[in-house]
TrEMBL record:
Pfam families hit by this protein: Cu_bind_like
GO cellular component, one term: plasma membrane
Protein name per Swiss-Prot or TrEMBL: Phytocyanin domain-containing protein
Species of the source: Artemisia annua
Signal peptide positions (record): 1-26
Amino acid sequence: MGKVKLNLLIVMAMVAITMEFHCIAAKDHYVGDSFGWARPKVTLAGYDACDGSNPIQLYTSGPATVSINTRSQHFFICTVRDHCKAGQKFVVNLRS
């Protein structure tokens, strides 16, 4: 009886996890989609601190096309909850 309850608990936990994370399953996500994602272009300090409060540029509609014309590093972060602190940020390094 105890083993059946444990197995049922494990199955219920797996179902709950699957339901919770269905929105991040392997699929394309676009800036400005129904999740409301926004990708601001920020300074190095904003990138390091995950601070999008003073963005250089904010992209809120998508799909977004970003034109990068200067040879330097360009920093982008996610502004949703703790996504940036969890690693959802990227750098574009434009070289000659």
